[in-house]
Amino acid sequence: MRRRSGDAHQWAGSITFQLDGSRSEHDVLDAVATGFTSQEGFRSTVDDDGERERILVSGPEGLAFVARVSDADELYVASASRCFLLRDDESVHDTY
Questions:
Q1: Over the stretch 16-25, which tens digit does the pLDDT of each residue have?
Q2: H or E element in which residue 44 lies
Q3: Strands laid side by side in the 2-3 sheet
């Protein structure tokens, strides 16, 4: 959990997968998008800067994910929650 301005916080994380090169970058990202959007409340868009595609996913409660494939055939997925306040009986040091 990261502390944001004031008393607001945000959950963030990431994971990297090594790909075997058997599928195109587009096919991998399409599978990731489909995996998310097959669940209720999720939607995805493709962001293409002309060199590399990435998938932007938004979900319930302000969840956000970004997925891209690197030159090294790695799939990188980053995630974050919207900013939120902890209740008085919660601590950033607790395990959730």
A1: 999 999 999 9
A2: strand 43-48
A3: 2-3, 8-10, 84-85
Note the pLDDT tens digit of each residue in 21-47: 999 999 999 999 999 999 999 999 999
Distance, CA of 32 to CA of 79 (rounded, Å): 13
Q: Where are the alpha helices (DSSP H) in 1-96?
A: 25-37
**Closest C-alpha to 71, from 27, 26, 25, 39:** 25
Strand partners, 63: none
Cα–Cα distance measured from residue 1 to residue 80, given in angstroms and rounded to the nearest whole number: 10
CB 4, CB 83: distance < 8 Å: yes
